[in-house]
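Ticket #4471: structure output looks truncated?

Reporter: J.K.
Steps to reproduce: submitted the chain below (194 residues) through the standard prediction queue, then opened the result file.
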Amino acid sequence: MTVIDTSRHPASGVDPATLVTTLQAEVASLLTPVDWAEDEIAAASRRHPGQADLLFHTFGLLRRRDLGSGTGTEFVYRGHARELLERVAAEEDLRPATAAEICLLLSKVSLQTPIHGPGAGLYFRMWQAAFGDHPLTAEIIGDQSAYQQLHGTRIDELEAMLRRKAADPARQLGGIRCRGLHHGGPVTCRFSNN
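Returned output as attached by the reporter:
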């Protein structure tokens, strides 16, 4: 949260224009991820029209986890949300870590120690899975193939372990209650109590 320096105006408090500008910036920073989530839910609903009712009710699942630097970056958030929404549409387990979450964890680890072998191969794999719209360089794509050939089985094992160990046990769809309104308009929703 932004701290406003009141020491410049001790007698009168904070300048109202500064306060309004600061509050507008903070509200905008809070609402931007909401827009990203809504965009991803809408896109998933277009990809899976038969699951649109279910996908509409997933907003609460798309919260960000604080896994280090990059958590609030748009393409990272969108990659995370897309994977979760695909799991929802396929009615798969939502708890295992997403590819984006694994990338964030591996990035954090790489700040402490170099990542080689299966770890590097997993990072390349998870990056491609989560952020395909932010492609790796041609050099790294070549490295990715080599890592897969050399360490494929170990990469698979490491991926399974990290998805399990970094899981979010609370990330589950609970009982969905719908009042028959989506975005303020009446709808025929299979979860409606009406």
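Triage note (M.O.): checked the attachment and the full token line is present. The two ends are 41 Å apart (CA to CA).
Status: closed, working as intended.
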